[in-house]
Amino acid sequence: MDEGSLSAVPTEQAEREARARLHRARRVVIKIGSKSLAGDTAEACARLAEDVSRVGTPSPAKRSIVIVSSGAIALGVQKLGLGARPKEMAWLQAAAAAGQSVLMQRYEEAFGKLGMMVAQVLLTHADLADRARTNNAQAALAALLEAGAVPIINENDAVAVEEIKFGDNDQLASMVTPLCQADLLLLLSDVEGLLDASGKRVGFVRNVAREARPLAGASVSGVGSGGMASKVEAARRAMLAGADVVIASAREPRVVSRILAGEEVGTVFAAVPQRLGARKHWIAYTLRPRGVVIVDAGAAEAIRDHGRSLLPVGVLGVRGAFVPGDAITVVDASGIEIARGLARASASDTARLAGRGREEGSDEVIVHRDDLVVLPAE
């Protein structure tokens, strides 16, 4: 799962190959940001619907499209007559409640004119942090796609509080990608892609840590909550789920159909050759760690290089309060995160058993290898 595992292939060739396979994508998640929908939202939705109608259900290509849409809060701010996006949680929730119906009305009208169905799906992080609810959401989305509908997914901001929020819709889109078993994620924004230091579009990225993160910055628009840094992180997570990712401008004419035709639009992030399974991706990138276990060099090597379970003998220390079933982070003695997993012992029991081997009466497992995800080397 090394993000640089394609490095043996010349960059230009790797980009050509990545763009050439985009037209073969059969399940596509499209995320569109608040700033791209600001102003005339009806026109923006109509433009997106027309573009999707060329490439998605019920076209001959038999390609399924899922849309993760921002915009409810921004529309609610206008509807409620607020001067700017509020900072208080209660007013954000009120704006979301007021704006979500307007947003869906825009999509209903835009897609309905083209004979296409849409369906609203509202999620919170808590929905996807619970495995049973995740499976239910996955089944519901699969049924909608089978029925020929275009799911319009948004965070349920009207009830979400900080503890159950995704953070922003870029991260939501990265979690929806494996949920839908999508092979392509399009992150549509107000910029033409990742830009280099001179402001020129970067066409291709295969190692996020080296090539993309140094160029990414936070949101300065005041409309959305994301930014290029968030999009780059969302791209990295989707790449690890086996999906190609393109960051592009929503205002680019026919942006979706042109990307799927392999044109040089936006910035392509190439999927890793060895994708994480849905469950392991869920453990690593959906669940929020409740604690940290620090391990010695021997345990770090056994986990990272040999896929072993985390045993008490390799534990140096514990931080945080967690119980069996909670997600935890595993770090080496220098503080570098090497894995995430589901704990089989509490924080107090892990601390009590730290350093003990089988000869000392400890045959417990802190994290079993089936529940342990080694994070990609950067």
Structure description:
This protein has helices at residues 11-21, 34-37, 41-55, 72-79, 89-112, 125-129, 131-146, 169-179, 208-212, 228-240, 255-260, 278-285, 297-306, 347-353; strands at residues 27-32, 64-69, 117-123, 149-155, 184-189, 204-205, 244-249, 267-269, 291-295, 315-320, 327-331, 337-342, 372-374. With 378 residues, the chain is of the alpha/beta class. The protein has two domains: 11-276, Carbamate kinase (3-Layer(aba) Sandwich); 289-374, Archaeosine Trna-guanine Transglycosylase, Chain: A, domain 4, CATH 2.30.130. β11 and β12 (337-342) form a beta hairpin. α4 (72-79) packs across α5 (89-112).
Give a brief description.
Helix content is 38%, strand content 18%. It has helices at residues 11-21, 34-37, 41-55, 72-79, 89-112, 125-129, 131-146, 169-179, 208-212, 228-240, 255-260, 278-285, 297-306, 347-353, and strands at 27-32, 64-69, 117-123, 149-155, 184-189, 204-205, 244-249, 267-269, 291-295, 315-320, 327-331, 337-342, 372-374. The protein is globular.
Number of helices: 14
In terms of DSSP E residues, the strand content is: 15-25%
Q: CATH H level of the largest domain: which superfamily?
A: Acetylglutamate kinase-like
- The N- to C-terminal Cα distance equals 10 Å
- Corresponding CATH architecture of the largest domain: 3-Layer(aba) Sandwich
The chain-level mean pLDDT equals 88
Tell me the strand order in the biggest sheet: 3-4-2-1-5-7-8-6
Record field, number of beta strands? 13
Class from secondary-structure proportions: alpha/beta
Q: Helical residue percent?
A: 25-40%
Overall shape: it is globular
Which spans have pLDDT < 50 for at least 5 consecutive residues?
A: 218-225
The CATH topology label of the largest domain is: Carbamate kinase
Order of helices and strands: HEHHEHHEHHEHEEHHEHEHEHEEEHE
CATH class of the largest domain: Alpha Beta
